[in-house]
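Retry 2 of 3 after timeout on previous attempt. Resubmitting structure tokens to design endpoint.
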């Protein structure tokens, strides 16, 4: 495997004013980098060339190409250059480095109006992921999801803060030094002290601070007139969404706590007589589309309700929204017409839409996949889109949907099996992270490799997963981690009882929060699974909380109901290190030296505990961060894990040697992969 490629399954970002000009990410010598794409000439140009790769890119209405230049910890700054190439510049000067918390750019004024806003929350331009358990927000870069596996209406009667104040809703002054007819940049940066700063200015010019807030927050949008900013914080907080002028005056505070229901902001309409902010509200067991404008305040569109998680984008006309719904491991598309209060289905193939974006002229770009078909990009207008760089055709395996009875409803499993039909099979439970995420009927390179190697693969959407509604996402009846392990065990028993898997040849594999569940499962239910692979896991929750990013500390505190000092017993009960001396099954642990989400020191402590108990284990260390973009690292992990599971699970007879304390310095083999 001397030659490999890495690709990011994502739609290209499209220049609103020049739709033939696009930006996308693709493989560049085993790294993910940013490229331009000219649909008129069908030619691509590489923009970035960074040692660790580049994931986050955007294009604004004036065809400037933007990217976030970050290090292995995710700390960096925004840069840009013209579409045609040339020297690159800092997006704004005098801005401290930090984590990406959103970018928005308006175009130069033409004909008295503005259009062409480029937005990104640091993960995907114009997209926020809605309804994530524990986080309660749309700060997608801070979930422990495991990026290594290759997002008549009525008025609510909100408080007075949900209204225009001081006449500041329109005509706000431009920042000093920014001409009224010039483009405007707004960005958010998460700082090391846990605060988030929001800056505005002309592209390449000095960035003036509009506001700084304590804790994690993100820029949700910049009004098309360049005079309003929307900031989003924890969706269940009293200040879930704040609208400000670029001078820093508060226009509206939209709550998401108590009876209001959690609230997310998805960006301003690109057109229309008034600035209108697109929102999603969780109420009871439903997600509803909502909007805010200075004249009307917040309007919740009760006619536009969904039983599972959604995200949405404006159509270019600013009068309707494209809604993508994640439902039971698959996707649905809808178009909501706000004026007529009608909801139309948008035809899609069965499977998963990883993204969908409407563009001028009625063009709709979609990124579709299912378990046996790698992602495919399509344009309804026939616009040439850049090559995706994935494998061709159908991949091995057959998919079955399995539903296992449980205390809060059926647990849904996507079971991929080899096509030879001979079962039961040796099996691997591939455990997703988050916890606010879910497995989809979508292509997964790890599933492909395992099924091609003769394994069945079970992807379990345990309680706490998205895609099954708010009640399922909040179901943590047995405590953090233990609820999810109980679901994995129930599915294990069900698949065994159906004769689909071999109980003596079944292992676990998870990344990030999925890796955490692998460690917890092996420690609390020793012998049930015969091997485990934990990639970049949480191993000691209290220690991880102390060293993690501010946003992840906030996530932990919402999951557990407090800090480790406030509720120490809850953190201890859910920490794998507490059960390390009970691990009986062979374990491969993969960790990253620069990981800020699942820090390296708490993994080292867990490995030391395994050493002390004599547990048989191996470790692989990567010289990277949590969300590495180096293809070589991914290949190294995939190869090592598949060989490890093949060796441990293919044995026809299993013997358990007497356990003894390992001599000092033994019991763990450490490797560093540097690419």
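Retry 2 succeeded. Sequence:
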């Amino acid at each position: 495997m001397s030659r490999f490629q890495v690709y990011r399954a994502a739609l290209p970002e499209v220049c609103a004013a020049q739709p033939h000009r696009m930006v996308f990410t693709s493989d560049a010598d085993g790294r993910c980098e940013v490229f331009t794409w000219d649909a008129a000439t069908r030619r691509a140009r590489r923009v970035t060339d960074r040692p660790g790769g580049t994931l986050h890119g955007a294009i604004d209405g004036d065809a400037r190409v933007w990217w976030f230049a970050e290090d292995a910890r995710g700390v960096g700054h925004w840069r840009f250059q013209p579409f045609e190439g040339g020297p690159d510049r800092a997006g704004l000067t005098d801005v401290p480095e930090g984590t990406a918390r959103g970018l928005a750019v308006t175009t130069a004024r033409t004909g008295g109006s503005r259009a062409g806003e480029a937005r990104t929350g640091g993960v995907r331009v114009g997209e926020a992921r809605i309804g994530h358990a524990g986080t309660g927000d749309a700060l997608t870069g801070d979930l422990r999801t495991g990026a290594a596996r290759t997002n008549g209406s009525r008025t609510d009667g909100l408080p007075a803060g949900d209204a225009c104040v001081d006449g500041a809703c329109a005509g706000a002054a431009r920042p000093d030094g920014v001409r009224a007819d010039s483009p405007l940049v707004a960005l958010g940066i998460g700082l090391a002290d846990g605060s988030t700063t929001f800056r505005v200015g002309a592209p390449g010019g000095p960035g003036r601070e509009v506001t700084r807030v304590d804790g994690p927050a993100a820029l949700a949008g910049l009004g098309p007139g360049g005079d309003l900013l929307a900031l989003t914080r924890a969706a269940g907080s009293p200040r879930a969404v704040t609208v400000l002028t670029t001078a820093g005056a508060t226009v509206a505070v939209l709550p998401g706590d108590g009876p209001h229901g959690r609230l997310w902001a998805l960006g301003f309409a690109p057109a229309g007589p008034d600035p209108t902010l697109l929102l999603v509200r969780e109420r009871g067991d439903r997600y509803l589309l909502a909007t805010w404008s200075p004249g009307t305040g917040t309007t919740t569109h009760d006619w536009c309700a969904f039983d599972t998680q959604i995200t949405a984008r404006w159509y270019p006309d600013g009068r309707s929204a494209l809604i993508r719904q994640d439902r039971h491991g698959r996707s649905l598309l809808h178009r909501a017409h706000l004026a007529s209060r009608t909801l139309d289905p948008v035809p899609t193939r069965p499977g998963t839409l990883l993204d969908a974006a409407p563009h001028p002229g009625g063009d709709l770009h979609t990124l579709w996949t299912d378990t046996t078909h790698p992602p495919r990009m399509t344009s309804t207008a026939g616009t040439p889109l850049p090559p995706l760089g994935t494998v061709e055709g159908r991949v091995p395996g057959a998919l079955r949907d399995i539903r296992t009875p449980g205390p809060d409803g059926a647990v849904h499993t996507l079971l991929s099996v080899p096509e030879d039909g001979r079962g039961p099979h040796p099996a691997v439970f591939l455990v997703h992270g988050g916890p606010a995420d879910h497995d989809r009927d979508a292509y997964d390179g790890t599933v492909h490799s395992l099924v091609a190697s003769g394994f069945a693969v079970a992807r379990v959407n345990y309680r706490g997963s998205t895609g099954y509604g708010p009640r399922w996402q909040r179901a943590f009846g047995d405590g953090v981690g233990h609820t999810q392990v109980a679901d994995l065990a129930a599915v294990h028993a069900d698949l065994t009882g159906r004769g689909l898997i071999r109980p003596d040849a079944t292992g676990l594999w998870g990344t990030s929060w999925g890796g955490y569940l692998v460690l917890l499962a092996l420690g609390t239910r020793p012998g049930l699974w015969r091997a485990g692979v934990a990639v970049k896991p949480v191993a000691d929750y209290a220690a991880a909380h102390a060293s993690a990013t501010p946003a992840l500390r906030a996530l932990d505190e919402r999951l557990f109901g407090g800090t480790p000092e406030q509720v120490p017993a809850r953190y201890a009960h859910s920490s794998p290190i507490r059960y390390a001396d009970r691990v009986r099954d062979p374990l491969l642990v993969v960790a990253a030296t620069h990981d800020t989400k699942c820090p390296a020191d708490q993994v080292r402590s867990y490995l030391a505990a395994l050493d002390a108990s004599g547990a048989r284990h191996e470790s692989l260390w990567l010289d990277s961060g949590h969300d590495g973009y180096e293809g070589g690292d991914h290949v190294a992990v995939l190869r090592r894990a598949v060989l490890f599971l093949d060796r441990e699970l293919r044995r026809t007879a299993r013997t358990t040697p007497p356990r003894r304390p390992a001599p000092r310095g033994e019991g763990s083999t450490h490797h560093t992969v540097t690419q």
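Attempt log closed. The longest helix spans residues 631-649.
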